Amino acid sequence: MQANKIIIKRLGYEKAKVMLQGLGNEYDAALLEYRRQHNIFEVGDPVIRKWNNQLYWIISDIDNGSEFLIHKNKDAKFKDCKVCELHCNLSHATDAEIEAYCRLDLPESVVKSLGEVS
Q1: Packed helices 13-20 and 2-11: angle between N→C axes, nearest 10 degrees
Q2: Where are the alpha helices (DSSP H) in the chain?
Q3: 45 closest CA partner among 55, 54, 79, 53
Q4: Phi first, then psi: what are they for 26, rounded to 5°?
Q5: Residues 6 or more apart from 100 whose CB is under 8 A from it?
Q6: Please, are residues 92 and 70 in contact by the beta-carbon 8 Å criterion?
Q7: What distance in Å separates the CA atoms of residue 23 and residue 107, rounded to the nearest whole number?
Q8: Cα 21 from chain centroid?
Q9: Burial of residue 81 (number of CB atoms within 10 Å: 0-12, 13-18, 19+)
Q10: Where are the alpha helices (DSSP H) in 21-68?
Q11: Which residues pair with 84 in a beta bridge?
């Protein structure tokens, strides 16, 4: 994993993405970690929507990184998506948040109520 970070740092994210994307989970994980650290969002990324603290997936980038179509189902179709107006309304989901399907740094009462929201 450390070697992947060095490659990304030396080449820059865009060039490293072209070289590493699709080569395997270790490389994809390094690219995702870089995006998380540098607040870069791409199609396929799991994100938390800040106003409801729930997990969504970026389905389509409709405005060059500032507006995305998102959905709770990772494999949703374009027509089924909700629009998140600005990238500032999103934060990258951690691996634990993906498993929990919501933001984890919330009070327990809020996390319980999220399970009731559709």
Answers
A1: 130
A2: 2-11, 13-20, 25-38, 95-100, 108-114
A3: 55
A4: -65, -40
A5: 111
A6: no
A7: 39
A8: 16
A9: buried
A10: 25-38
A11: 68
Q: How confident is the model at residue 117 (pLDDT cuts 50, 70, 90)?
A: very low
Structure-block tokens of residue 92:
């990258």
Give the length of the chain: 118
For the chain, state the CA radius of gyration.
15
Is the sign of the CA dihedral 104, 105, 106, 109 positive or negative? positive
Query: Using one digit for the tens of pLDDT, what is the confidence trace for 59-116?
Result: 999 888 888 999 999 999 888 887 776 888 899 999 999 998 888 876 665 556 655 5
d(Cα 114, Cα 85) in Å, to the nearest integer?
A: 22
pLDDT, tens digit (0-9, with 9 covering 90-100), for 27-63:
888 899 999 999 999 999 999 998 889 999 999 998 8
- Give the pTM: 0.80
Handedness of CA 87, 28, 59, 61 (dihedral sign): positive
